[in-house]
Design goal:
single chain; 70 residues; alpha+beta; 2 helices; 33% strand; globular
Length: 70
Amino acid sequence: MTEVDPNGIASDQGFQTGDVILEVAGKKVANPADVRSALNAAQKDGKRTVLMRVKSGEATKFVAVRLGRA
């Protein structure tokens, strides 16, 4: 991610400007299209949340993200 709206959903779920999403639901992602694809696959599988591994500054953290309805 390059920018995060401080009043938006991503901020509420723990994302900050400059964070880099490394994995979605255990699958490595390299670009925004990979992230969208992994999120769509999780929704199709009926998952309500996914765990993302995110690089934030020098640290790596896990963020649980609620999925919207398909």
